[in-house]
Amino acid sequence: MPEEDADRLEALIVAADDAGWAALTRSLRERGLAPTHSFPPRCIIGVLCRADLDSLRGVPGVRVIVDRVPESRLVTLPEPLRLAAAAWNERLRSRAEGGRARGRGESWDAPGFLPPDPPAAVREVLRRREADAAREPSRKPGLSERDKPEKT
């Protein structure tokens, strides 16, 4: 990490209410700071120097979080803020595991995951094939006449 970045931390900055959001955005504007992510009207994520984070801690109605949001607190948050805080927690968890995203490099049917849903048109073709197979048990697998592309 370059020396000038050593003093910077990524933080989840939460506004308690609309007045806190107004004070937070005003404070950021006055300092010339831009968040990396914004979830109006309740929170932002930003990489800021410690002095700016300390200043934001003094803004009424604003809370600066640099660690995980405890699960017990997460479930009590309003939904939009809960989603942002859960994403924050997942980001921190991913970083702790060396930046590896959950599920990356694993099979789609690994424990805890579901297979992807095929598009509706593919599901319909599969349903027709299953129905055809049920009616004609001795038929060899392949495309039925309904599945074949139309000739133009």
Describe the structure.
This protein has 152 residues and is of the alpha+beta class. The protein folds into two domains: 94 residues, Alpha-Beta Plaits (2-Layer Sandwich), CATH 3.30.70; 39 residues, no CATH class. Helix content is 39%, strand content 14%. The chain has a four-stranded antiparallel β-sheet, sandwiched between helices. The chain is elongated, with a radius of gyration of 25 Å. The mean pLDDT is 84.
The tally of strands reads 4
- Work out the strand percent: 5-15%
CATH class of the largest domain: Alpha Beta
Distance between the termini: 62 Å
- How many domains? The number is 2
Give the SSE order as H and E letters: EHEEHEHHH
| Overall pLDDT | 84
Note the overall shape.
elongated
- Which structural category do the helix and sheet elements fall into? alpha+beta
**Number of discrete helical segments:** 5
CATH topology of the largest domain: Alpha-Beta Plaits
Can you tag this structure with a few keywords?
alpha+beta; four-stranded antiparallel beta sheet; elongated; Alpha-Beta Plaits; 152 residues
Write the layout of secondary structure elements.
Elements: E1 8-15, H1 18-31, E2 37-39, E3 43-49, H2 50-57, E4 62-65, H3 71-74, H4 79-96, H5 120-135
